[in-house]
Amino acid sequence: MFAPVKPYAALYVSLWETVRFAAHSRPVGVGEPFEASDLASILNKGSCFEKTPAFNSQAVFMVRFRLRLLWYTALLTILVMCCFVPRNNERRKAALMIVDEMCQEYRNGRFSGSYCEKICSSEDLNVFGHSMLNKAVVEIEVADQWYLLKSAKSRFDQFDLVPAFVSVSDFEHLLARQIERQVSVPYSEAIEKARSLWSTETFSLADRRSVWALASQEEYLNFRLFNFTGLFPNVIGTCGHMYAVPIVRRYISRWPFLTSASADKFVLTLRILQYSHAEPLHWCDFSSLNVGTSDDPQSPYLILDADLLFTDSALTSLLAKIPCQRDLDCHFFDCKAACNRTVGFCSRRLNSNIQVVCERFVSWWYKLFAGPRDRLVDLCLDGGFPNVANYVRLPNL
Fold first, then answer.
1. Any idea where this protein resides (predicted)?
2. Is this model's pTM higher than 0.85 or not?
3. By three-state DSSP, how is residue 263 classified?
């Protein structure tokens, strides 16, 4: 097995190739040896090129071009090593700090979770990168299995803590109200969903604080409460304010090469968003980075970032609270509304999930070469699904 070539070794190889090129490019006698000092003569347009001026000028240009390219490559390599290697080390240190603090809080009894023991007691735990764009994401490996630990905030004490005097019944009421606002379901159904978020018979203060920190995160609630749609990664377990999900391949690995099979998966995904719940679901962050894919043609794409996923009534309520003076003020990420200048607030959403997908993922060349029965192109041309009354919604299991 060959050992990998180090960056500086590659530079030496390129330099040697440059010297060889110079040696074989000049009009010297057959068998005449090439000395290293001749390289300076080449660059200075020395006497070794005097016999054929046109050829000499071209050779000098090529040698100088290759040396300049070699210099820029070396400089770029140094910049990459100076910038990215320390940054990766900093991200790994940040990830280790998050996991260490989480496990310390768990050992101190401040919170609980179904995955705390597996993560904090494992001798095979490996912690890798950390991302903190719109949330804390830590990549870990436990017993040869890879997961992402996610949370809206990196530390547990950044969430509102449930006071010790709040009883279990009062806590369930608060949790149900939170779910009622997020999912837009009746209070009686919200109570049942609230109880499904925790499977233990006891409900200690550490349990309540953990559940409340998780329920304060829109993505976690969407992952858990809309799991029946098949649009989200499964939450494998939790530990305090963090929840573990499997690592899913992102759609960006295929972008922009849309195929008929992937187009059908988009149609299925859009149909589920439209009809799976009592209200249509609006996703305001449709990008190739946030879409997960699988090889199963019967499954939809996965929504990897669900912070900006709302029911129809929840999004309408949110937009109605945004003050505006022009329509541009009502562009909430991918969800675009119009400004009601009479009241000075935004109205309902004007565009749709379908329009966003057609703008982001369906290129003009795909429309040009797509078959006459391509469902996604037809959907883009029609602008929407048929009347909802013609479809049976999925049960909220």
1. Endoplasmic reticulum membrane
2. no
3. helix
